[in-house]
Amino acid sequence: MPVVLVVLVVLASTLGPVAPPAGGQSLGELVDDLGRVRASLDTANAQLMTTREQRIVLQGQIAEVGTQIDGLRGRIAAAQAEIDRLVAEREAIRQVVRARALVLYQQRRPAVPTATLDFDAPMDLARRQVLGRAAARQDEDARSALAAAGDALATARDQLAAERAQLEGQEAELAARRRQLDEIDVRIRAQQAELDARARDLQGRIQAAIAAGVIAAGGPSLVGPTALSAAQMAAWWRSVGYSGYSVSVPIETLAQIYVAEGTAEGVRGDLAFAQAVVETGGFRYTNPGNNFAGMGWCDSCSNGRRFPTPTDGVRAQIQHLRNYGDPASRAANLARPPSPYWYAPTSLDPAVAAANFDSFFAKGWALTWNQMGRGNWATDPNYAQKVLTVYSRMVAFASGT
């Protein structure tokens, strides 16, 4: 379940006589105080994760606009090259027309309007008529080509102007988005600083509660080697006779995934398996998809997180348990990259997932399974005991086989 409320505070009746909470607070006041701070941390953490997702989306938009600008610049260069070609072509046609006009002027007959035609050479006259008609056709073709070249040049110049106007618009958009990115970076730094300050404050309150003797101690840790084998866990599950199994792989395969993922990240895979049994009713209720540990569910949520494969679901659970159980956990120290389906659900970006894993504010706030529940993973005050009860049954079954 989501990170909400407060670390497990054990009622005085379950611990026996304890010292009063520090600062003169009653036990109920301490619980309420920690709950309020923890709730504010949840809000701050959610805001930070959302802002990081917005940043990666904006970076994608900037890259897309940059690609469009590159395309526009290429088209502008091509349009300019076409204009240069058309100008040269038009000038070549004009040269032909000018040369033809000069020839006609120099060779026209009769030489002056009052001169008479020479009819003494009929063969010469016939040749001149044929050549004249051919020349007229050539002249008409030249005029048509010149007009077409002029029209094409005008079209190319209009296209160039439109492309340049579009480029200016895209460059303005790119500049605006880059300013937005700078603003988001400032917001991320501010949100991270606020989250860190609130986390330090809550850690101080938790230490005061530990000193007062109201924080549970002892019990199995979240991190460490897996004691039970996949075969033992699967055999226990079959012995219980759970019905309605809804996972796409056999229970033996699923148990082996828990062992492999737990071993890779130094998390108790067998206890994570027991947690999943509690969360899913023995792997009967795994909706919305390979969600074995209530990831993303909350008391007011209508849906949880979806994972594409059983391995992805187990991996997200194991890695988040590592974050709870190890105050020094960092993405760089994981055997596998942080699950983007959990730590970056919108963008699925590995860099965002790593940043959100590293900035998780509740690192090390459940060093043992006794400290799970009442807001650490689940709001159920009996959550830890339910998981440990299932695990003890698994151990007892394995010991008797």
In words, what does this structure look like?
- By secondary structure, this protein is mainly alpha-helical.
- It has two domains: 12-18 and 217-400, no CATH class; 64-194.
- Helix content is 65%, strand content 0%.
- The chain is built from ten helices and no strands.
- It has helices at residues 12-15, 27-107, 122-212, 230-240, 251-265, 269-280, 310-325, 340-343, 350-358, 383-400.
- The longest helix has 91 residues, at 122-212.
- The relative contact order is 0.13.
SSE layout and pairings?
Layout: H1 12-15, H2 27-107, H3 122-212, H4 230-240, H5 251-265, H6 269-280, H7 310-325, H8 340-343, H9 350-358, H10 383-400
Helix pairs in contact: 2-3, 4-5, 4-10, 5-6, 5-7, 6-10
